[in-house]
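In the previous chapter we treated chains in isolation. Here, by contrast, the input contains two separate entities that must be folded as one system, with a combined length of 774 residues.
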Amino acid sequence: MALSAKSAAARSAAAPRGAASRARTVRVAALSTEKSNPYMEELRATANYIATRGKGILASDESNATTGKRLATVGVDNTEDNRRAWRELLYTAPGLGQYISGAIMFDETLFQSTAGGVQFVDVLKKQGILPGIKVDTGLEVIPGTDGETSTQGLDGLGERCARYYKQGARFAKWRAVLKVGSSTTAILENAHGLARYAQIAQANGLVPIVEPEVTLGPGTYTIEENAYWSEKINSHVMRLLNEYGVVLDAILLKPNMCLPGLDAPTASPADVAKYTVRTMLRSIPPAVPGIHFLSGGMSEEESTLNLQALQEACPNSPWSLTFSYGRALQSSTLKTWAGKKENADKAQDILVQLARANSQAQLGKYKGPHPVPGGGRILQALRTGGPGK
Amino acid sequence: MAPPSIDELAAVAAALAAPGKGLLASDESTGTIGKRLEKGGIENTAENRRAYRELLYTAPGIGGAFSGVIMFKETLGQCASDGTPFVEVLRRAGVMAGIKVDEGLVPLEGGEEGETSTRGLETLEAACRQYVAQGARFAKWRAALRVEEGRCPSDLAVKVNAEQLAEYAAICQAAGLVPIVEPELLIDGPHSAETFAAASEKAIAACVAALWRRGVALEACLLKPQMVVQGTECSAPRAAPEQVAAATLRVMRRVVPPAVAGIMFLSGGQTEEEATRNLDAINKLAKEEGRAPWSLSFSFGRGLQASVLKIWSNAPPSRASEARAMAGALAEANAAAARGEFAGRHPSVTSAPGATLHETWRGWRTDVDPAAAPPPAPALALAGV
């Protein structure tokens, strides 16, 4: 861009007007989408509600194949009715709504009902829990990369969102998977997918949960390295959300906490909190009402202790630092149930206790003992191959 | 001696953004300040420029209102009439010295009509070392972006200016200066406040992304944006301070990560009174609503000087103490506004209803490259001074 003042001056004096006239038809993207979106007020209210202090999200949106793998661990067959019964147990847990503001569902589940014929969306709404829906259709490997993935689901997304809204869903979720050392190709591809999904979701009345997960992976990488890559990925995601006119007041973020690699020594809750908070302060503007951390392999107790530490590290946080936990709320619940009716009450009790522990942790008031202390990491393999995986 | 670490720079940034304090932007280039002096019947000499700045830097109570003062390079090397360097005068008052390091605007190659980029990167590293040796602790670089009704600045203008700001900021942090990042969206034009808000979101978000890419630590940075107001030629009635506050906070919350130590608004054409009342409303609203984790303060030029210059004009020596008192009063009013506690009469004598401190195009800088022939510029028109 180096040019001398003199030649620049001479050039501008003789500048043709073509460039200026070309620009007249360019719209201000952010202005037009926000103003013309009839859902905008509801979207804002939804996002603020889900981010209510003292509450978090139950992530129960495992695809049929993944759910099947989980059911198999307690000897339950992967049938539609078993999947339905398992989710019924979760959603009808008495008092769950005190601690859970939203539940993410898989496509099949959004349209299911209790054995007594009450639609799940109605069960949840009665509990004060907003129904959400996973809208991505799974991961595909990006050719030319070392197993890095792109998230599928943009085709027909608008129609799907509209259908889900009609059924009662009010928020959506799309999971992008990255790692420490992601290639630029993978970062840009995943950030673009997230931003485009978020834009389409907002246009169709669903608050998008934006999930740029830097997975807890093998290796000895340090917590600082994880924090660096999390910042880098967040920076690209936020840039693209802005460029695509996504209204940040009406999204939720679902990031990973900063953790060292699986083969490195575990970090203390205080260290996890220090690096995670620093990453959020550096990359997430305050307009985002809630940052709902994924549990991603952390044990149930670790998930609660780390969440508590976050509040201590950021006492006046502008966003809610809260949870969107799957395995950290379901693992022991599933083991307790084991597919047996006589265990249902006990299983529901464990779920509500876990939800309450995390609610207290969100408020910075968790004291323990944990309902499921001393558990190990709850890891799962990355699955690729398209829808239903 | 090793330059300050990032943690040390972050401490400087936090001090500049201290609650209830702000910055005096007295870094007008020789040409710009000269035009304002001449309008008031004062000859544009180095001595007059020095005497004028001395008024500002010795005003009563500035240590309680200013955390820093931004200077032009000529001023950084000047002294008070008793021979004390200005940097030292300020240091004794507890005020840090800052320095404008850009070398002015140039037409943006390939941009829309009137779009610009900023000069100064090539010589910046060496210049920073010099300024640090003279006692500067922070720096400022101004990018200018244009808004027209319904249209944001072009992608090219946003990209180039954001990247230049990021490069400038990185060089400063390496040299030991806290960078003030100023992507000024110009108040000139018929655009609505809504258009201005959208353009601000686009431009500031791009800057923040560029800063990350360039490895700039946000904790050791300050942002200097325009408040969200309508253009000077917009026919709609001017928004009340509460509306300016709501619109401004909404934009800042959407694009500024909490790690940025402070948001130091420019006054850019608002009258002194408007700027104070808008800043006050911003802080009141921030206290009421929360979710505003950065300091919301001022970095005013005209907003702290217009009335001072008006008093001092045409009779410099005899009205010096009156002018100095005005400078102190303006400083105190804005310090109160930065706490959300402004009340009572505003001291300004240049803020009659309908007034503006808006200046039309001031022409290209000639002090940097005297051999340059700038394009013909419209006649300068100053109002209210």
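Chain A has two domains: 1-36, 42-362. The longest strand of chain A covers residues 171-178. Compare these points with the single-chain example from earlier in the chapter.
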